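Sanity check

After download, print the first record. It should look like this:
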Amino acid sequence: MKRKITAFALSITAIAFLFTSNVFAADYSIVFGNTPPSIVNFNSPLSTTSTSGFAAVNSKWNQPRAVGTNPHNGVDLKAALNTSVYAPYDGWATGITGAGSYDIEFLVDANNNNKKDDGDYKIRFYHMNSREPDGKKSKGTLIGKSGNQGTSAAHLHFGVCSTTGGLKWLRNEVNYRHLSSTNWNSGKDLDAYSVVAWNNNTASFTSYIRNDGAKEYFSEVRMYYRTSSGTWTDGGALTRSGDVYSYNFTGKVPSGTSVQWMFRMIRSGVSQAAFSPAKFYQPNNNPNASSYPYEYWTNTVS
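Expected structure tokens:
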């Protein structure tokens, strides 16, 4: 699979548009990224080992929500007040001011050389009720206690991120694929879309949400594609087989054509859509409604 990232400058522009139940503004600030700079095998932040502590997921990364950040910029895990939170990998913990007074930014030691030379590869923990002293932490070491700071119900918000050029939230699933299917479904419970693939002219991906631990499917997943930087073609709603959606481009564009594609996810009862690849905070549900370039995957039709 190939993926193309187009470089461009964006200003933060608010364009108001009305939905049936809420009024949102298309922000167009870039708050999402994609795969982190390297893939490592994380523990659950609620466990000292790789085989326990996989709490229910209350809200997934890039999941459309009726309230709060939209789409969701991290993962919310079910965690009672003062639940122990552990380092999911070796790295350095630093106290920050996020959604609470004891929140943590964790620099990942991805190459395991005990040096801060892995680039901007971080994890953020929000709503913390307490934290351990700053410094180097080994995988599975206590770093603090969960809380309800800045929110009405106790839970743990965590997510992989980059802070270079502004805070951008990255996919979580790729760092948990090594786990057995019983642990967050090998990471698929963490992100609104996962296991994106291209094979024999067919784009496929896994997509569903978690609502306070309960599994729910999107009311609609829709394909958009184009062969240049122009208008997006509405490819229609996709059909689902189990957790997997797929779309065959054979006959859609001529053989040998490079096609740019993305899909839109609509959650029942929530006006705001989410897209894959994720990029904007509160994106316009219609990618042709704005001149701001949405992110996309790129593959060649054979």
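If your output differs, re-run the checksum step. Summary of this record's structure: The first strand starts at residue 15 and ends at 18.
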